[in-house]
Amino acid sequence: MSPNLYLLWTKLPSMNDLVEICIEHLVDDINELLKLLCLPLVIESPFDLTPSLFLAILESILRNRLPISSEIRDSREMGAKISAMKILLGILEDDILENDIGLSDIDPRKLAAGDLDEVVFVGRVLCDLGFEKFGLGRRRRYSDLNEQSTQGTTTNLRPSSSQANTISNTTTYSVYQESETAPTSIFDDHSSITNRLPTTQSSEPKCIHELDFSEFSLDEMMEMNDDEEDIDLNQSACDCSIQSHVASIPEASSAGTSQPSIRYEGFIGRASELEEIREFESKNGQLPKSSTSPNNTTPMRNPTQHTFPAQYTLALLHERARLLEELARLKLIRASNSLHS
């Protein structure tokens, strides 16, 4: 938190005056904060701020879960709610703000029960944390609060002795840093408690034209592709050896072999599957005996288990040719049987 925001907190009026002035703005601010945090909720009054909603707001701001057991989270008993609010207040005051702004006077039992004074004060603190995180400070409203409360509350505008000592000893929060260009995140530093929470790297969404691809070179991308191929080869479910894969791949055509001509104009005619299979067989030789012989007892390997794309395509074509041949043989047998009958 910036020093200006801290000094602003020390100049706030008493809790009773704060509730009367802030209650009309709190609902709007909470709804705006819920929208920024992508929480699909809308409150209508401060009484809608339940302990579970307080936890959801703070955890969404921190982007980490608080160290609260699942038993306490799932329980609906008042004791569990009080325990959760104790942890929330402790993390807010000791680990995030690291200064006394009045949270030590909050009774967690009243906060869990939905007492208006406690709920408004904690909700106001969460709004400040959230808006400071997104760079949407509400200093204008706090100046309005001070102007509205100057009459009859001059004594309350002075910081207490403990707050004055805090101001003299501490000039800034460790979790806030002041910037002249733009407000920084309030969670640059983590405390001992938040360090135990699961950390996740998160960033604001960017457009595709804002991404920086300069750090990826062509050599690095080629190395990444090579590594992926090695991993796929080692993790392959195929039970045959690598030599069998390499041996089954047809050798590349020699330099003297004529390549098919390429047309750049005209129309593409209807393709014939049988002609393509015959042309493939004529170019690559006869099919292996093991795949064409119907009496062969050796089962064919599943072509989907091969990792090389070339052999995968070749195996599919072999399997297709074998099935067509088998289908033609069955049709011939059926035709002969019908003639004899």
UniProtKB/TrEMBL annotation:
Q: Which domain of life is it from?
A: Eukaryota
User: Where is region (Disordered) located?
Assistant: 145-168, 281-302
Biased amino acid composition, Polar residues: 283-302
Q: What is this protein called?
A: DUF5745 domain-containing protein
